[in-house]
Structures
1.
Amino acid sequence: LRAAKAMTGLLVMSTGARGSTLTCPPTTTQLDTFTAEGKQWVACEDLSIPGGAIALVTSSVSSDKEHLPEKGSGGDQPTIVWLPKTYEPYTQGPDSDYYLGLGKTTVLEAKWDMLGDALLNNCSVKTATTGLCEPTWARVERALPVMRYSQGNKAASGNQFMCSPYSPESGVRTFTGSRSASVDATFSDHADDCTDNGFPRPQGYVMNLTAIAHGEPPIVDFLTYVKFTGMAEGLVGGVYPNLIFYFPIQPQNFSTFGGSRYWTMIASPVPDMEGGREQSVWFRFQQLICKGANFGPPCGLHGDPQYYDTYWYSYSPITSRWIRPELQANASGFYSNLLRVKRFWDTELAAETMMEVTLPDSDGTNGTWLTDQARFSLVRSMISRDNTWHPRYGVLPGYGVTLQDGFQDTFTSTATAALEWGAFPYARGVIDNWLSYYVRDNGMITYRAEELAQSGRMLTLFALYVRYTRDSSLMVEHFGKARALAEWLEYRYNMSRSNYPATDPRHGITAGGDEGDGFVGYYESSGATPLQHQYSCAANVYRGFLDAGEMWVSVGTAADRSDIVAHGQSLLATAPEMLSDIQASLA
């Protein structure tokens, strides 16, 4: 996501501890006042561009003794919390701008990685070390367009479902949530509530009732009211899981606003559900009107911002019959949650003690984007998990169903990313959860089918964890299951040697499926379908035996555990035979 326009405004005036006069930084507009963390705040925002930053301004002196001034705030000087916004249109050019000039049809019909080959070979200057091109962000960005359509019902408008838990096509575009809840909040291209939780529907509820409240006609057809092809999305606060959607409004024959007009919706998840299974989300809706075309400045609010605490009935622009007025969702609830999200994730990411990366910006690559992308991917991985640690292959509706929880690739990709990024507490929790609940006593996985290459990769990950963290206690605790996993792989390897003579290329190539969904062919044929022999699977098993063998010998020696040492030595004795068999088969 592109970084928001840099903000240069700094301090605001202060007239004392309790009687502070808070004003917004230059280029921003005051939207609201609110109370949070025992202090009075003003909410400000740069409305001149869609991706303008939010600034939350307060006095550093708190009226609540539990909330102390932020470090470096300078006594009663004001504190500004900057939350940048990003703005990424769904459509950023025609197909002719993408596919590296090879053509969409040609690329999609290719039986090989045509785009990857072009990225590595089609350039004027190649590196001296590899003889290949050095990929840049700008070039990779033009390989494929951003996601324009995420399935679902394109013709849905108003209160109709574009994305529904009751239809086979999920249509989920994005999601947010917390580490503690068991579900996530999912949204369609139109920002619909994909799981029908009861979130305020942007079109049929918020926009329609607001139009009525402003004396405009009820909106009958949103396909002619919202320019859905011009929608955009973004994040609020950098790598925090606050989502924002942008809804451009078509010119209406009853309106004389001229210029351009658009709505925004921010979805800010409660960062810690504290044991609750469901996910609460704070929403802010606001409508802006601009004198220039295509959101060109000057721009300002059209009506007041609206706030919702998870459910549609927590606020209404036309009635207070659902909830007593003093208990309706308000600015303090929304902006307090934005601050909680920031505090929570700043603490969580700091506790991971991950590596700090500063990547340079160049003509073709924005290092800041790459860093943010990696960190935000880790945050999303964390919130996609059920009750902090249990894996999920996806979100609902769709692949978030529980039968997919044990999908092997979810474990291997997450553990690899956490280890390589230096998020060792996260890596430990993921590995501990996997060995506790998803590796079975017989070495198989709590999933409907095997994935041989991933099982071999698991052994390497166990070794990487010990090598990177110097923590051997976790692997000693789970030694029994880790050994059973390796012994199952060794059993498969030995079968491939005994079932085929040395002259057969399948000899010593560990047999098994590499894709879990392929289990149907074996299951429905009552075992008659022969197992596959793939070099990629055999190579992962060999590497796993070599890495885990070295790890177990070292760990067992340090722990004075002869059984652990013996297992490691067994793996190390088998690994060279595996490599020899692979080389002979290839020859």
2.
Amino acid sequence: MPNDDNFRIGYVADVEGHWDYFLEYVQRSNVLFWEEHEDHNNNLSSSATNSFGITFKRLKLRPNTYFVYGGDSVDKGPGDIRLCRALVDLKKNYPDRVHLLVGNRDLNKIRFSSELSDEDMKRPIEDIKRPFWDPNAKSYKEHLEEIKESHVATDSYTLDDLNTKAERLRWMLKHTLGCPDTFEFRREEIAYLEKIYGSYPPTCDTHESSPVPTTVIYHTNDVDVDTTKVTDEDVVNSFDHEINHPEGSLRQYLHHASIACILGNTIFVHGAIDRLTMRFVPSKQSIFDLPKSPPPSFAAPSTDITDGIMIDNVYEWVHSLNEYLRDGLKDFESRPHWNEERTSRGGEALLAIQNRPSMWGRSVVCNSYADGGVVATEDAEEQRKQALRVAEEELNPLAFEGIASNVFDQEPADWLLAHGIKRIVVGHKPTGDCPAVLSSAYIGVEVCSVDTSFARRRDISTGEKSNRFGANRGDAISLVEIAGSDCNYNRLEISGMLADGTEYSSTYPHIGSNEDSESGGSILGKKTVDGWWVKAVASDKYHLCRGKGRTVEYDIRSEEDVVICRQLLMR
């Protein structure tokens, strides 16, 4: 870490249970590191490595640094439990310097408590509909019929025979939560945890006769494990344990997390701060369904709303959002199952805030800037305008699914600037093989969108390493840090490896400086005259992107070949 920086924030989001990705992130980090586990006498334990060659280490934070995890800790790899445990342990050890945010993938798991309960399993199969926010998804009955048709061994089975908790969970993961591989990922992780600690769920806080807390979990996925011994019932019980048991990894993560946090001149949320989400705090009686309340004014947010409150002070807004999370968790814990009429359950408000239709498009957790690997495209602008028209004219909240927020909107930027906030950092929606940034030269606020969970480029071949971090991530990894003299005067630094194996390092101008006076960094985060965005610099070459939806194009240019579109620069 550079000696002249007295302040540094490390940030990562959307790891989604990919443990090897997180290990690589920590190895590159200037903020986090692993420390060997110590025994009760504070000496290095002779059992820091167990009989299987597994090394026990603990995640630590360097001096003068802060760390923010931007949400979405689970679902896409065999490391959900280990990642949550490591992050929560870090938060407990550095409560004022570590901030964990909730993403939609973290919050939506509280559905398991009610929808996989013994009582809910008695419901007629026909009553379990497709998710209200996705008319193209399969209903549970359609899912079971598909299984029956595709497996010869189930020919003699009825749909009721196939209606098990394991199959209900598989349907939820695949057709309502967007993670079809998660069931088998959890089977794999259970096998790892049993080998690491001797049992799962842990029956005590030690491994064999050595003091190895379950939070000490440095371990790669290259140890052979036998997943055949892990039953479907084990997998179902694991999902139940991790969200419902007070010491469950995801339950603990939610307990120590926030919806938003502010560190100096930077605000962090999982989704987006736009014209719809700014100032808005939903009602704690919000429900996870299509809203019954009338739509708000989409053109100009008003204090005259019936489904929440509007708060002018950004710090009070953040505080109220985080109180909303805490109250929602208390509600969930007090009544995790449906009532007798199946009209109410604890935690509904938390499920609502991670669903854009439930919020009339005002979800600070799920709104997003990203489209086509960048933070703004003409196609996204047209889709947003159309969605607003449909929502208002047809009273259809489903219009908000999949649209991107307007990163150029000056109104939310001015609101943040009035409170000294000059940077927004988010995750949630993929931005190609490196983070997408909007230079502060446009609206006075720098916007950094960091999710690289769909980074693999299928237009190139990188050889045997191309699946290093999975079929979607490929080889790409990003390190986002904010460094400077203090929390209010600092710069954005982004480094890592692109999908083609190129190492890159991009340093943005200090917030508040004259960007055009800086060589190189002055064109990062800006749009060219021919519609490309400058995203990264490597070996004096600039890496550019443009796209539409999840289709991303890439280009490489020298600095003299990059011509910035000046008419968009507002400041």
3.
Amino acid sequence: MNTNTESTLERINRNDPNLKELILAYPYFPRDADEWGELGWGIGRNTHIETVELDFISWIGDENKHASFVRSFCQGICQNRSLQRFALKFCDFDLFDKGILQELVPFLVHNQCLRVLDFYFSPIESGGARLLGSTLERRTNKSIEKFVLSGTEMGLDDEGESVNALLTSLKKYTHLKTLELETNEIGQVGCNTISTLLTSTSSKLQKLDLRDSAIDNYKLASLTSSLAKNTALQELDLGNNFSITATGWAPLLSLLRSPSCNLKNISLNENNIDYDMTVALVASLADNHTLTKLSLCGNPSITTPGFVAISTLLQIQGTHLEHLDLGENDLDDDVAVALSNSLANNCTLKTLILNDNPSITTTGFVALSAIFQNPDTQLTFLDLTENNINDDSAIAFATSLINNDKLNTLSLGTPPPLTSTGWAAFSRLLCNASSINNTYLSNHTLKSFGSSIRCVPGTEKVRTYLELNRIDKRCKKHKILLAHFMGRFSMEHFADMKVELLVHVLAWISKSGFKFKSRKGNCRISQSALFHFIRSEPSLFGRIDKTGSNVKGGVRRLADRETDGKVW
């Protein structure tokens, strides 16, 4: 057993009350059946662990042998009564065929604390679906609030009959809030059962995920009719259901127009949505006052005129869109300009995703950058990854963001495709060192470019400024210290300053906890700045010392720690 597992097992066996979550992920697994079993039995006796998750259960070699390891683990945890969440994710072998699901039955029946059950892309197939259904029927406490069965290959060999058996068992689970059934064969009878769940007066279901579930016009019609009677559902994902045509979408669009619609989040990613359907969608959403999130990623058949029509939604008073995803749609400059124009006076949108649209050029990005000149913009996240961003685009964004205090993340890709010119523009944006006042007025809100730029040459200063923005409320002060009180700096502002005021300046400099890396290791900004301040004008130190301030020893200690090299 590896060291990490041994340490964790020791905490499990002594029932450490601080150990609430255990995630076992490849390759940090026990090595054999005995170690798997020991870990499982330890969890079974534990009364404080609330979450157990197994990720990437896959091996190259003897599948039956390794499946027996997991069975040993599941036999042990069956005694546990404290777990609130149990998850098996990305398992390569069939959990039912290998007997793993069968070993979990006592745990699923008798653990009355269970709130979340998650089988994510871990196949159970039709036999497992039926077993899960009968197991859930046996539970006396119908307490499960979140049920994830994504990518479990249910219903593929029986047209959804087994899925229906499982869904039928959920009718009494009145606390169920999330049901995720992505990438399964739901079947017409399964959709009818989901409709029954939705129309129940006791239904609390808030999120329904039916991505890639072979939903067609007839199944969607059944679901839509039930949604018209439902007041709880807020999030609906119908992505990757290519069989739905304009005829099938029509009832859903009518629902979105209805005053009784309570949906806040709808995802229609990667469907065969065309221009005509888009125009109808825009017309429906123009009268909708509840939807806050719309995802249309991967629908290039909407075409440029359709996306321009979508942009008009952002101009309509009364709409409340906060999140718009138009990624992977081959958008061009015309769409970028239309979005920019629509957002010129928008004060609701917070997230705009435009990733993987390589047809947008500098012209489009310059137009998009103008969004941040709107003083009322609420945009906090802009995703431009996998696009042709260049230095000119970066300069345009850096210029527009000078007075912006909302945008936290400008995602540019991995790594961002910029040269030193583009990074210099962002460096000036984050810390304009031309004067102390301009440093104070720099952008202190931007915290990330979406991905790590640690290995990107020429980004050292940018990384430091972003870190200051992320972790320190006093980032303005620290940027001033870094930009103006390091190395041989000008003392003209302090030459005629009274000693009493100068003492306060030194005190202000000294109160800083942020650290940066120097050639001799980590150093506090305050220590380095104070040293450089006094080194730049030793006579000032003499003036202060005559007042009785005992600072000589502290300055000597700073001198011992500092270097004569530059900070950067």
